[in-house]
Amino acid sequence: MTMRRTFSGLSGNPHADGWNPLTLALLAGVWIAALPNWPLWQALLALPETHTARGGLFVAGFGVMVAALTALLLTLLAWRATIKPAIALLLLAAAFGAHFMGSYGVVIDTTMMTNVLQTDPREVRDLLSLRMLGTVLLLAGLPLLALWRVPVRGLGFWRQAGRNLLGLVAFALVLAALLFALFADLSATMRNHRTMRYLINPVNSLYALVDLGFASGRVPSGPPLAIGADAHILPRPAGTKPTLLVLVVGETARADHFALDGYARPTNPALAALGVASFRNVMSCGTNTATSLPCMFSALGKKGFESRARDQQNLLDLVQRAGMAVLWVDNQAGCKGLCERVPNAYAHDPVAGVAALPAALCDGEDCLDEALLHGLDARLAALPAAARARGVLIVLHQMGSHGPAYFKRSPPDRKPFLPECTSNALQQCDHQALVNAYDNSIAYTDHVLGQTIQWLQQQASRYDPALLYLSDHGESLGENNLYLHGLPYAVAPVEQKHVPMVLWLAAPAAAQSACIAGLRDAALTHDNLFHSVLGLLGIRAAEYRPTLDAFAACRAP
Ligand SMILES: [Zn+2]
User: Please, what sign has the CA dihedral across residues 371, 376, 378, 383?
Assistant: First the structure.
């Protein structure tokens, strides 16, 4: 009796009725495989090869595999105290995953998870919708309600461990048997439709989190390696002024929606009037901000950046080290660590001696991109004078065409294309209205770039001004039922990778102008940014590679 009391004291009442945790793991596995995985089943059933009896069997078998795999994972935590939290977490992850995959055609992989973890609350708010609430309540709320009411039986740790081991073996056997039986169809489907594996929900989210954990272990933490030990500024010809380069980092702009690059709608009236050079064959490093931004500013290029053994300092560090003034102004979710060691500010930060931002530019949460120019004179004047006399690099990080709320990216009086979609449930909008909202954001970027060039022209008495604009990645606007961006690079459609790039110089010589215009179709990538900026600023360092400097051939010798 004493023994028994001790046992029940340790491990719960062995006589209580209730469900075994293992049973709950199995039921949760079946629910998750059947319902929150609807984007996977929808995608699979859309494939012609599943429209046969054999294909139908394959999809059914695959469904059992997903259920067994999910149940197997839950079995690792199938004890009385842990099973309910484990199922709750998995249900919520699966429901949110189902909403985003089903609504936007995105898939969940490591880079998407990086994005999710780095997203700021403003971006999250844009993604919230009634539809999301409905999906989560239906797919997670309903089973959670049932789960809440179910009593769970406590068998004691070791007895439960024994059962769980049996459960693990049983689920693994089911998986192995089906893998063997379906191998030919499974391997062909996964090879031909590589995004399919990222749709297996919520295994995709778990896998991405684990992969991220390993990834952060792959690149050692600690301060990044210094670069630019020998960085120096080339001597300026007598009588010339220091360079003032504004680098505008665009957001989610597609090259094929720039009129300058051949788009049929007038999305670039301001830039066209200013006689800028546009480069229409530029590819991005990543398909999302978190990947592209650090890669763009790295000396390593896409390949080198992705396989780096250590984090390195970036373009901003090198320019500052060479002796020039550097400033990063952000109107988005931040500089992802790039601007940590140089002067930086958010566009909505107050500037000493300058009136507050007008309400028309900032609604208290989001700011329109013209906010980047507010008080920029004062921000520039506050940089060290000695460094400014050698040259200045200002980076303006835009909100650009950040989705899905494109309609919020242009002010009411700057909407040439109407009617526009005012929902963030993009797939429910009329396609033309969606494109209109997106094109309005591009036209507004055109306006902001035009205003920036006007601001630069006002600095021409003290500086030799220039502007370089380059977007971080593109966007899907419903092509093949895909929306937003962030698909794995290898399988992402070109719309997510083909980005606009624009250069404006204050007073180029005729020969230089013609030379730069001749680069219109040159094959360029984000790899060119680091070296081209150093070229424009007249900075040299061991890291500078003239072959990657897009404009090197167009400079006067
Ligand atoms: Zn981005």
Answer: positive
- Mean pLDDT for the stretch of residues 353-373: 92
Asked if pLDDT for residue 330 goes beyond 70, the answer is yes
Report the alpha-carbon distance of residue 392 to residue 463 in Å, rounded.
9
**Whole-number Cα distances in Å, 456 to 192, 341, 394, 475:** 50, 25, 11, 29
Is the full-model pTM beyond 0.85?
no
HEC sequence for 484-526? ECCCCCCCCCHHHCEEEEEEEECCCCHHHHHHHHCCCCCCEEC
**What span, in angstroms and rounded, lies between the C-alpha atoms of 153 and 526?**
58
Q: How far apart are CA 300 and CA 315, in angstroms?
A: 11
In the predicted structure, residue 90 carries a pLDDT above the cut 90: yes
Q: Residues lining ligand 1 (ion), CB within 5 A? A: 251, 289, 472
Token look-up 């995004």 returns 195
Q: Which two tokens stand for residue 295?
A: 């890669």
Question: What is the amino acid identity at position 548?
Answer: L
Whole-number Å distance, alpha carbon 57 to ligand 1 midpoint, is: 41
In 122-256, which ranges are E strands? 232-233, 243-250
Residue 469 reports pLDDT greater than 60: yes
Q: Is the dihedral of CA 232, 238, 241, 246 positive or negative?
A: negative
pLDDT of residue 195: 79
Q: How far is the CA of 321 from the centre of ligand 1 (A)?
A: 27
The pLDDT value recorded for residue 38 is 93
pLDDT (tens digit per residue) in 187-228: 778 877 877 888 999 989 888 888 877 766 667 777 899 999
Measured in angstroms, how far is the CA atom of residue 7 from the centroid of ligand 1?
Answer: 57
What whole-number distance in Å separates Cα of residue 151 and Cα of residue 30?
Answer: 19
**pLDDT value, residue 461:** 96
For residue 473, report the distance from its CA to the centre of ligand 1, in Å.
Answer: 6
Give one word for 481, left, alpha or beta, with left for phi > 0 and alpha for psi -120 to 50: left
Distance CA 275, CA 243 (A): 20
Q: What mean pLDDT comes out for the span 49-53?
A: 88
Tell me, in angstroms, the distance from the centre of ligand 1 to residue 276's CA. 23
